[in-house]
Protein backbone atom coordinates (compact mmCIF):
# COMPACT_ATOMS: atom_id res chain seq x y z
CA UNK A 1 0.00 0.00 0.00
CA UNK A 2 1.43 3.39 -1.01
CA UNK A 3 2.01 6.01 1.70
CA UNK A 4 -0.56 8.78 1.93
CA UNK A 5 0.88 12.17 0.92
CA UNK A 6 -0.01 15.14 3.13
CA UNK A 7 0.83 18.82 2.93
CA UNK A 8 2.60 20.37 5.94
CA UNK A 9 -0.62 22.26 6.76
CA UNK A 10 -2.67 19.04 6.73
CA UNK A 11 -0.10 17.36 8.97
CA UNK A 12 -0.20 20.18 11.53
CA UNK A 13 -4.00 20.09 11.61
CA UNK A 14 -3.99 16.35 12.27
CA UNK A 15 -1.38 16.71 15.02
CA UNK A 16 -3.27 19.56 16.71
CA UNK A 17 -6.59 17.72 16.44
CA UNK A 18 -5.05 14.63 18.06
CA UNK A 19 -3.54 16.79 20.81
CA UNK A 20 -6.91 18.44 21.52
CA UNK A 21 -5.61 21.89 20.56
CA UNK A 22 -7.62 22.67 17.45
CA UNK A 23 -10.51 24.51 19.11
CA UNK A 24 -11.58 25.69 22.60
CA UNK A 25 -12.97 23.01 24.93
CA UNK A 26 -12.87 20.09 22.45
CA UNK A 27 -13.89 17.67 25.23
CA UNK A 28 -16.55 19.93 26.73
CA UNK A 29 -16.43 21.48 30.19
CA UNK A 30 -16.55 20.31 33.77
CA UNK A 31 -15.06 17.29 35.51
CA UNK A 32 -16.29 14.82 32.89
CA UNK A 33 -14.34 16.71 30.22
CA UNK A 34 -11.16 16.06 32.22
CA UNK A 35 -11.82 12.33 32.10
CA UNK A 36 -12.64 12.46 28.37
CA UNK A 37 -9.33 14.25 27.77
CA UNK A 38 -7.30 11.68 29.72
CA UNK A 39 -9.17 8.86 28.02
CA UNK A 40 -8.35 10.37 24.63
CA UNK A 41 -4.66 11.15 25.19
CA UNK A 42 -4.09 7.99 27.22
CA UNK A 43 -2.01 9.85 29.78
CA UNK A 44 -1.28 13.31 31.16
CA UNK A 45 2.35 13.80 32.14
CA UNK A 46 3.03 14.72 35.77
CA UNK A 47 5.81 17.13 36.71
CA UNK A 48 6.72 18.56 40.10
CA UNK A 49 8.08 21.93 38.92
CA UNK A 50 5.94 24.59 40.61
CA UNK A 51 7.47 27.81 39.27
CA UNK A 52 4.10 28.11 37.51
CA UNK A 53 1.14 25.73 37.93
CA UNK A 54 2.27 22.12 37.56
CA UNK A 55 2.42 20.57 34.11
CA UNK A 56 -0.47 18.11 34.49
CA UNK A 57 -2.86 20.84 35.62
CA UNK A 58 -1.55 23.16 32.90
CA UNK A 59 -2.11 20.58 30.13
CA UNK A 60 -5.69 20.01 31.25
CA UNK A 61 -6.41 23.75 31.60
CA UNK A 62 -5.29 24.26 27.99
CA UNK A 63 -8.12 22.00 26.84
CA UNK A 64 -10.74 22.33 29.61
CA UNK A 65 -11.14 26.10 30.18
CA UNK A 66 -13.13 25.85 33.42
CA UNK A 67 -10.73 23.28 34.91
CA UNK A 68 -10.38 23.01 38.69
CA UNK A 69 -7.30 21.09 39.97
CA UNK A 70 -9.34 19.21 42.57
CA UNK A 71 -11.20 17.41 39.76
CA UNK A 72 -8.10 15.32 39.10
CA UNK A 73 -8.00 14.04 42.71
CA UNK A 74 -11.74 13.38 42.57
CA UNK A 75 -11.42 11.26 39.41
CA UNK A 76 -8.61 9.34 41.07
CA UNK A 77 -10.65 8.84 44.26
CA UNK A 78 -13.56 7.57 42.12
CA UNK A 79 -11.29 4.91 40.59
CA UNK A 80 -11.57 6.30 37.06
CA UNK A 81 -7.90 7.24 36.62
CA UNK A 82 -4.64 6.09 38.19
CA UNK A 83 -1.02 7.14 38.22
CA UNK A 84 1.87 5.18 36.79
CA UNK A 85 4.45 5.27 33.98
CA UNK A 86 4.35 5.24 30.22
CA UNK A 87 7.63 6.85 29.14
CA UNK A 88 7.15 9.21 32.12
CA UNK A 89 4.90 9.35 35.16
CA UNK A 90 1.36 10.30 34.28
CA UNK A 91 -2.36 9.91 34.91
CA UNK A 92 -4.07 7.20 32.84
CA UNK A 93 -7.62 5.87 32.48
CA UNK A 94 -8.25 3.03 34.94
CA UNK A 95 -9.64 1.01 32.00
CA UNK A 96 -6.04 0.82 30.74
CA UNK A 97 -4.74 -0.65 34.00
CA UNK A 98 -3.71 -4.04 32.58
CA UNK A 99 -1.35 -2.28 30.16
CA UNK A 100 0.62 -0.91 33.09
CA UNK A 101 1.52 -4.48 34.12
CA UNK A 102 4.26 -5.00 31.49
CA UNK A 103 5.81 -1.71 32.64
CA UNK A 104 5.77 -2.89 36.26
CA UNK A 105 7.37 -6.15 35.20
CA UNK A 106 9.96 -4.17 33.28
CA UNK A 107 10.67 -1.99 36.30
CA UNK A 108 11.34 -5.11 38.38
CA UNK A 109 13.70 -6.56 35.75
CA UNK A 110 15.65 -3.30 35.55
CA UNK A 111 16.19 -3.18 39.29
CA UNK A 112 19.55 -4.20 40.72
CA UNK A 113 19.52 -7.25 43.02
CA UNK A 114 18.41 -6.24 46.51
CA UNK A 115 20.01 -7.17 49.78
CA UNK A 116 18.10 -9.28 52.28
CA UNK A 117 17.82 -6.23 54.54
CA UNK A 118 16.17 -4.25 51.72
CA UNK A 119 13.75 -7.09 50.97
CA UNK A 120 12.90 -7.38 54.67
CA UNK A 121 12.19 -3.65 54.89
CA UNK A 122 9.92 -3.80 51.84
CA UNK A 123 7.98 -6.64 53.45
CA UNK A 124 7.62 -4.69 56.72
CA UNK A 125 6.43 -1.59 54.88
CA UNK A 126 3.90 -3.63 52.90
CA UNK A 127 2.60 -5.38 56.03
CA UNK A 128 2.19 -2.07 57.82
CA UNK A 129 0.07 -0.64 54.99
CA UNK A 130 -1.98 -3.86 55.00
CA UNK A 131 -2.64 -3.34 58.73
CA UNK A 132 -3.06 0.43 58.93
CA UNK A 133 -4.29 1.46 55.48
CA UNK A 134 -2.93 4.20 53.19
CA UNK A 135 0.29 5.87 54.41
CA UNK A 136 2.65 8.64 53.32
CA UNK A 137 6.44 8.84 53.62
CA UNK A 138 6.08 11.10 56.65
CA UNK A 139 4.25 8.28 58.47
CA UNK A 140 7.47 6.29 58.60
CA UNK A 141 10.31 7.00 61.02
CA UNK A 142 13.30 8.86 59.66
CA UNK A 143 15.55 5.85 59.18
CA UNK A 144 18.37 7.70 57.43
CA UNK A 145 21.78 6.85 58.89
CA UNK A 146 23.84 9.38 56.91
CA UNK A 147 23.06 12.84 55.52
CA UNK A 148 21.38 13.01 52.12
CA UNK A 149 23.74 13.47 49.18
CA UNK A 150 21.12 14.93 46.84
CA UNK A 151 17.62 14.93 45.38
CA UNK A 152 17.46 11.21 44.56
CA UNK A 153 19.25 10.01 47.71
CA UNK A 154 16.14 8.75 49.50
CA UNK A 155 16.07 7.24 52.95
CA UNK A 156 15.46 3.45 53.22
CA UNK A 157 11.73 3.57 53.94
CA UNK A 158 11.13 5.94 51.01
CA UNK A 159 13.14 3.61 48.78
CA UNK A 160 11.07 0.65 49.97
CA UNK A 161 7.82 2.47 49.24
CA UNK A 162 8.97 3.46 45.75
CA UNK A 163 10.17 -0.04 44.90
CA UNK A 164 6.83 -1.47 46.00
CA UNK A 165 5.05 1.15 43.91
CA UNK A 166 7.16 0.55 40.81
CA UNK A 167 6.74 -3.23 40.88
CA UNK A 168 2.98 -2.91 41.39
CA UNK A 169 2.75 -4.12 45.00
CA UNK A 170 1.48 -0.65 45.94
CA UNK A 171 -0.35 2.11 44.09
CA UNK A 172 -0.50 5.81 44.87
CA UNK A 173 -3.00 8.59 45.07
CA UNK A 174 -2.05 12.16 45.95
CA UNK A 175 -2.98 14.62 48.66
CA UNK A 176 -1.70 18.16 48.09
CA UNK A 177 0.64 16.55 45.53
CA UNK A 178 2.18 14.30 48.20
CA UNK A 179 2.07 10.59 47.45
CA UNK A 180 -0.26 8.38 49.47
CA UNK A 181 0.66 4.68 49.19
CA UNK A 182 -2.10 2.05 49.25
CA UNK A 183 -2.82 -1.54 48.25
CA UNK A 184 -3.99 -2.05 44.65
CA UNK A 185 -7.02 -3.96 45.90
CA UNK A 186 -8.25 -0.81 47.64
CA UNK A 187 -8.00 1.35 44.50
CA UNK A 188 -8.82 -0.84 41.50
CA UNK A 189 -12.58 -1.27 40.86
CA UNK A 190 -13.82 -4.86 40.71
CA UNK A 191 -14.76 -4.67 37.02
CA UNK A 192 -11.27 -3.71 35.82
CA UNK A 193 -9.31 -6.31 33.83
CA UNK A 194 -6.04 -7.03 35.64
CA UNK A 195 -4.68 -9.80 33.41
CA UNK A 196 -1.20 -9.42 31.90
CA UNK A 197 -1.42 -8.62 28.16
CA UNK A 198 0.68 -10.58 25.71
CA UNK A 199 3.62 -8.71 24.11
CA UNK A 200 1.53 -8.41 20.93
CA UNK A 201 -1.48 -7.00 22.81
CA UNK A 202 0.73 -4.53 24.63
CA UNK A 203 2.43 -3.46 21.40
CA UNK A 204 -0.89 -2.83 19.65
CA UNK A 205 -2.14 -0.88 22.65
CA UNK A 206 0.96 1.34 22.62
CA UNK A 207 0.66 1.95 18.86
CA UNK A 208 -3.02 2.85 19.10
CA UNK A 209 -2.54 5.11 22.11
CA UNK A 210 0.49 6.85 20.64
CA UNK A 211 -1.13 7.61 17.31
CA UNK A 212 -4.37 8.72 18.97
CA UNK A 213 -2.53 11.38 20.99
CA UNK A 214 0.22 12.33 18.51
CA UNK A 215 -1.80 12.18 15.29
CA UNK A 216 1.26 11.53 13.16
CA UNK A 217 4.31 9.81 14.63
CA UNK A 218 7.64 8.22 13.90
CA UNK A 219 8.23 4.64 15.05
CA UNK A 220 10.82 5.91 17.54
CA UNK A 221 8.18 8.00 19.34
CA UNK A 222 5.81 5.05 19.53
CA UNK A 223 8.56 2.76 20.84
CA UNK A 224 9.61 5.40 23.38
CA UNK A 225 6.26 5.00 25.11
CA UNK A 226 7.30 1.42 25.95
CA UNK A 227 10.86 2.22 26.97
CA UNK A 228 10.54 0.42 30.33
CA UNK A 229 9.27 -2.79 28.73
CA UNK A 230 11.94 -5.27 27.68
CA UNK A 231 10.00 -7.72 25.52
CA UNK A 232 7.81 -5.39 23.44
CA UNK A 233 7.39 -6.14 19.74
CA UNK A 234 6.16 -2.75 18.65
CA UNK A 235 7.99 -2.32 15.33
CA UNK A 236 6.91 -5.81 14.25
CA UNK A 237 3.25 -5.18 15.15
CA UNK A 238 3.37 -1.74 13.54
CA UNK A 239 4.22 -3.28 10.19
CA UNK A 240 1.45 -5.85 10.64
CA UNK A 241 -1.06 -3.08 11.32
CA UNK A 242 0.06 -1.22 8.18
CA UNK A 243 -0.44 -4.41 6.15
CA UNK A 244 -3.88 -4.88 7.74
CA UNK A 245 -4.84 -1.28 6.94
CA UNK A 246 -5.34 -0.43 10.63
CA UNK A 247 -2.45 2.08 10.44
CA UNK A 248 -1.48 4.29 7.47
CA UNK A 249 2.03 5.20 6.46
CA UNK A 250 2.25 8.89 5.46
CA UNK A 251 4.69 11.22 3.75
CA UNK A 252 4.78 14.99 4.29
CA UNK A 253 5.47 17.11 1.21
CA UNK A 254 8.92 18.71 1.41
CA UNK A 255 9.93 16.66 4.44
CA UNK A 256 12.42 13.85 4.05
CA UNK A 257 12.27 11.68 7.14
CA UNK A 258 12.07 8.14 8.37
CA UNK A 259 8.57 6.59 7.92
CA UNK A 260 5.62 8.32 9.55
CA UNK A 261 2.40 6.68 10.72
CA UNK A 262 -1.21 7.75 11.29
CA UNK A 263 -4.57 6.20 12.13
CA UNK A 264 -6.81 5.77 9.04
CA UNK A 265 -9.60 7.83 10.58
CA UNK A 266 -7.68 10.94 9.57
CA UNK A 267 -7.56 10.03 5.86
CA UNK A 268 -10.59 12.07 4.83
CA UNK A 269 -11.23 14.01 8.02
CA UNK A 270 -11.84 17.72 7.50
CA UNK A 271 -10.25 19.70 10.32
CA UNK A 272 -10.78 23.41 10.81
CA UNK A 273 -8.60 25.30 13.27
CA UNK A 274 -10.39 27.89 15.39
CA UNK A 275 -7.37 30.21 15.52
CA UNK A 276 -7.08 29.91 19.28
CA UNK A 277 -3.98 31.09 21.16
CA UNK A 278 -2.47 28.81 23.80
CA UNK A 279 0.22 29.28 26.42
CA UNK A 280 1.43 25.69 26.67
CA UNK A 281 3.35 23.63 29.19
CA UNK A 282 6.83 22.44 28.17
CA UNK A 283 5.58 18.95 29.12
CA UNK A 284 2.45 19.12 26.97
CA UNK A 285 2.11 16.12 24.64
CA UNK A 286 2.59 18.54 21.73
CA UNK A 287 6.00 19.66 23.02
CA UNK A 288 7.74 16.66 24.55
CA UNK A 289 9.53 15.58 21.33
CA UNK A 290 11.79 18.43 20.13
CA UNK A 291 12.33 16.92 16.68
CA UNK A 292 8.56 16.91 16.03
CA UNK A 293 8.36 20.64 16.70
CA UNK A 294 11.22 21.23 14.26
CA UNK A 295 9.90 18.90 11.58
CA UNK A 296 6.23 19.87 11.63
CA UNK A 297 6.15 23.40 13.09
CA UNK A 298 9.62 24.78 12.26
CA UNK A 299 10.00 25.60 15.97
CA UNK A 300 13.32 24.98 17.69
CA UNK A 301 12.37 24.51 21.34
CA UNK A 302 14.07 23.26 24.46
CA UNK A 303 13.00 23.55 28.06
CA UNK A 304 15.96 25.20 29.76
CA UNK A 305 15.43 24.38 33.43
CA UNK A 306 17.74 21.40 32.74
CA UNK A 307 20.31 23.63 30.99
CA UNK A 308 23.11 25.36 33.00
CA UNK A 309 22.11 28.99 33.62
CA UNK A 310 25.03 30.40 31.60
CA UNK A 311 23.88 28.49 28.51
CA UNK A 312 20.19 29.43 28.62
CA UNK A 313 18.90 31.46 25.68
CA UNK A 314 15.31 32.14 26.72
CA UNK A 315 15.04 31.44 30.45
CA UNK A 316 14.55 28.83 33.15
CA UNK A 317 10.94 27.84 32.39
CA UNK A 318 10.02 29.11 28.96
CA UNK A 319 6.45 28.36 27.86
CA UNK A 320 5.67 27.96 24.13
CA UNK A 321 2.91 30.21 22.76
CA UNK A 322 0.87 28.70 19.92
CA UNK A 323 -1.60 30.59 17.72
CA UNK A 324 -3.62 28.43 15.32
CA UNK A 325 -0.87 26.18 13.87
CA UNK A 326 2.15 28.44 14.45
CA UNK A 327 4.41 28.87 17.46
CA UNK A 328 4.72 32.65 17.73
CA UNK A 329 6.57 33.20 21.00
CA UNK A 330 7.92 31.73 24.21
CA UNK A 331 7.65 33.27 27.66
CA UNK A 332 9.88 32.53 30.63
CA UNK A 333 7.39 32.75 33.47
CA UNK A 334 7.07 32.57 37.23
CA UNK A 335 3.94 32.88 39.36
CA UNK A 336 4.16 34.73 42.67
CA UNK A 337 1.00 33.38 44.25
CA UNK A 338 1.27 35.48 47.41
CA UNK A 339 1.62 38.76 45.54
CA UNK A 340 -0.77 37.55 42.79
CA UNK A 341 1.74 38.50 40.07
CA UNK A 342 2.68 36.48 37.00
CA UNK A 343 6.17 37.64 36.08
CA UNK A 344 7.26 37.09 32.49
CA UNK A 345 11.04 37.37 32.73
CA UNK A 346 11.45 37.12 28.97
CA UNK A 347 8.74 37.38 26.32
CA UNK A 348 10.56 36.30 23.16
CA UNK A 349 8.76 36.47 19.81
CA UNK A 350 9.70 34.35 16.82
CA UNK A 351 10.75 36.12 13.61
CA UNK A 352 7.18 36.53 12.37
CA UNK A 353 4.99 39.46 11.39
CA UNK A 354 1.96 39.31 13.68
CA UNK A 355 -1.37 41.03 13.04
CA UNK A 356 -3.26 43.09 15.62
CA UNK A 357 -5.77 40.25 15.84
CA UNK A 358 -3.00 37.75 16.67
CA UNK A 359 -1.53 40.07 19.31
CA UNK A 360 -5.02 40.40 20.81
CA UNK A 361 -5.40 36.61 20.98
CA UNK A 362 -1.95 36.27 22.62
CA UNK A 363 -2.97 38.90 25.17
CA UNK A 364 -6.18 37.03 26.00
CA UNK A 365 -4.23 33.79 26.40
CA UNK A 366 -1.78 35.46 28.80
CA UNK A 367 -4.67 36.94 30.81
CA UNK A 368 -6.34 33.54 31.14
CA UNK A 369 -3.06 31.89 32.04
CA UNK A 370 -2.43 34.48 34.78
CA UNK A 371 -5.85 33.83 36.31
CA UNK A 372 -5.20 30.08 36.13
CA UNK A 373 -2.03 30.72 38.16
CA UNK A 374 -4.04 32.68 40.75
CA UNK A 375 -2.50 35.96 39.61
CA UNK A 376 -4.22 39.30 39.02
CA UNK A 377 -1.30 41.16 37.49
CA UNK A 378 1.20 40.44 34.70
CA UNK A 379 4.68 41.97 34.81
CA UNK A 380 6.78 41.68 31.64
CA UNK A 381 10.45 42.26 32.42
CA UNK A 382 12.19 41.71 29.07
CA UNK A 383 11.27 41.28 25.41
CA UNK A 384 12.84 41.15 21.98
CA UNK A 385 9.93 43.03 20.36
CA UNK A 386 8.93 46.26 22.10
CA UNK A 387 6.14 47.01 19.62
CA UNK A 388 4.25 43.77 20.25
CA UNK A 389 4.92 43.87 23.97
CA UNK A 390 3.73 47.47 24.28
CA UNK A 391 0.42 46.49 22.67
CA UNK A 392 0.09 43.51 25.04
CA UNK A 393 0.93 45.60 28.12
CA UNK A 394 -1.62 48.23 27.11
CA UNK A 395 -4.33 45.60 26.84
CA UNK A 396 -3.31 43.94 30.12
Can you walk through the features of this model?
This protein has 396 residues and is of the alpha+beta class. It folds into two domains: 168 residues, no CATH class; 119 residues, Aminopeptidase, CATH 3.40.630. It contains 14 helices and 14 strands. The strands form four sheets. A five-stranded mixed beta sheet has the order 10-11-12-13-14, with helices on one face. The protein is globular. The N and C termini lie far apart (53 Å).
Tally of individual domains: 2
The helix/strand class is alpha+beta
Estimated radius of gyration: 22 Å
Number of strands: 14
| Mean pLDDT across all amino acids | 94
- Helix and strand sequence: EHHEHHEEHHHEEHHEHHEEEHEEEHEH
Q: Give the terminus-to-terminus CA distance.
A: 53 Å
Total of DSSP H or I helical runs spanning 4+ residues = 14
Residue windows where pLDDT falls under 50 for at least 5 positions: 148-153
The residue fraction in helices comes out at 25-40%
Strand order within the widest sheet?
10-11-12-13-14
User: Which descriptor suits the 3D outline?
Assistant: globular
Largest sheet: 5 strands, mixed
Give the strand content.
15-25%
Amino acid sequence: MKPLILTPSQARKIILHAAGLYKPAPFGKGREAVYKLIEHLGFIQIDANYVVERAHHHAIFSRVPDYKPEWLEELEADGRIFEFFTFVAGYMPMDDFRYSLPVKKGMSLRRKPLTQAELNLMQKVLERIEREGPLMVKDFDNDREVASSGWWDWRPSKMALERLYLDGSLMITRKDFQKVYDLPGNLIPDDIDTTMPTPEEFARYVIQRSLQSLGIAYAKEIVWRARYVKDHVIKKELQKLVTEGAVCQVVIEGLTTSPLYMLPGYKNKKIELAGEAYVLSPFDILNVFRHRLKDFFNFDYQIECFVPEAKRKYGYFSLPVLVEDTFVARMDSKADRKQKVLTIHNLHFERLKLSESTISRITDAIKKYAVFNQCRQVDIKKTNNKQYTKAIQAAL
